[in-house]
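Exercise 7. Given the encoded structure of a 405-residue chain, write a plausible sequence.
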């Protein structure tokens, strides 16, 4: 039985029903929470008695998943509230209801993402601390460039993740204002109290999905970072680089080739970045051109948000295991970092300290490199920079930031 059965005579064609039904089971606990808030508003307005409110609150503890007769979770909740369900929808519409539930969902999803990022970043910081002295080549253009330490490299990944945290914090803040009271689009004539910190404009309240875009964008940006990290893990674990061995608890074998140990975790994280970007473009395209206020197109917003939350959780949890167990080959890393050509810039800078213009110094060193006679000069300053104590200090500072907000 639909919530709007009173309006349409004959039942819907089954194909139409199947098409319209929302795939929104994940929203159920959040819609229960929103319904609890609305029930209190009804009670404050004298439209539910205290006894009815406490009965509603008890029934809300027992709400089960929608069944095939329910159009969406909102219908499922109203049905399961029985006789009180017939009162609960006074002064609200599914339009402000679904917006409220999705806002609560996104707030939780942002908190989850933040916790998972902290766990992953903490694993990276632990590794950065132990590898504060481990030299490795730093790259540009995927060509060896200058020596750095593994610790410094891992700290770069942590920087990306810290920016991700600020994007989730932004999305969480924008999910906060409540749309309740907006009703279908223009409020209600009932004397319901407006929620504190509620949205100012009722049309915007039911039409706005910017907070969902912000969340899905934060997920896409995070996944772009994870894909870059994942790509480097794949490179490091290749025989060609030979910098790392994958931990068996986070590696896969081949169904055919018995010798293989494959970086499927990193590859799948990299692959899911494509899906994450697709969710963002999909959600933006869904919203584009929609007239105010609510349109059923908006039912599609949930797929982007649910999928993003699932993948963020899955990828961060698996990558955390991988990073914690990654075995670095310090010998290979040190050998690669001690390639004398990685000191060519330092040699040019030694000449600059003696007063040679940098371009002349560059040309002199380049000529030595081309002739195969280049050797780092004794007066070149020590590398890698930043040195181990700087890396350790940066780890400590990053740990403090991670724990302080
Ligand atoms: N299932 C709908 C959604 O997800 C709920 C709102 C339906 N509102 C309406 N006026 N048909 O958006």
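Solution.
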């Amino acid at each position: 039985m639909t919530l709007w059965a009173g309006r349409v005579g004959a039942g819907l064609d089954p194909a139409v029903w199947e098409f319209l039904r929302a795939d929104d089971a994940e929203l159920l606990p959040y819609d229960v929470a929103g319904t609890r808030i609305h029930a209190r508003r009804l009670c404050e307005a004298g439209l539910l008695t205290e006894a009815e409110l406490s009965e509603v609150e008890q029934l809300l503890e027992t709400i089960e998943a929608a069944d095939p007769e329910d159009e969406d979770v909102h219908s499922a909740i109203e049905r399961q509230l029985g006789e009180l369900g017939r009162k609960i929808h006074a002064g609200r519409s599914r339009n402000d209801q679904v917006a409220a539930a999705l806002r609560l969902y996104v707030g939780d999803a942002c908190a989850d993402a933040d916790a998972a990022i902290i766990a992953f970043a903490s694993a990276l910081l632990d590794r950065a601390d132990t590898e504060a002295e481990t030299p490795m080549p730093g790259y540009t253009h995927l060509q060896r460039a200058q020596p750095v330490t593994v610790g410094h490299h891992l700290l770069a990944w942590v920087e990306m993740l810290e920016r991700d945290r600020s994007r989730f914090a932004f999305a969480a803040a924008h999910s906060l204002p409540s749309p309740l009271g907006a009703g279908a689009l223009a409020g209600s004539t009932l004397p319901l109290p407006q929620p504190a910190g509620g949205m100012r404009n009722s049309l915007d309240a039911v039409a706005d999905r910017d907070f969902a875009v912000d969340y899905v964008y934060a997920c896409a940006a995070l996944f772009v970072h994870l894909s870059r990290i994942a790509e480097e893990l794949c490179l490091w674990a290749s025989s060609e680089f030979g910098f790392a061995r994958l931990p068996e608890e986070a590696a896969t074998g081949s169904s055919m080739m018995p010798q293989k140990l494959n970086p499927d975790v990193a590859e799948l994280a990299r692959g899911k970045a494509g899906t994450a970007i697709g969710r963002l473009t999909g959600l933006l395209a869904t919203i584009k051109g929609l007239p105010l206020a609510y349109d059923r197109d908006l039912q599609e917003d949930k797929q982007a948000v649910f999928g993003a939350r699932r993948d963020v959780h899955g990828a961060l949890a698996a990558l955390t295991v991988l990073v914690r167990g990654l075995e670095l080959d310090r010998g290979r890393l040190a050998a690669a970092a001690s390639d004398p050509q990685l000191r060519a810039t330092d040699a040019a800078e030694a000449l600059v300290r003696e007063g040679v213009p940098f371009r002349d110094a560059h040309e002199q060193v380049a000529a030595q490199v081309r002739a195969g006679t280049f050797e780092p000069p004794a007066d070149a300053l020590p590398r890698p920079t930043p040195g181990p104590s700087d890396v350790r200090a940066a780890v400590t500072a990053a740990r403090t930031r991670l724990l302080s907000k």
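Remark. The first helix runs from residue 14 to 20. Students should compare their own answers with the one above.
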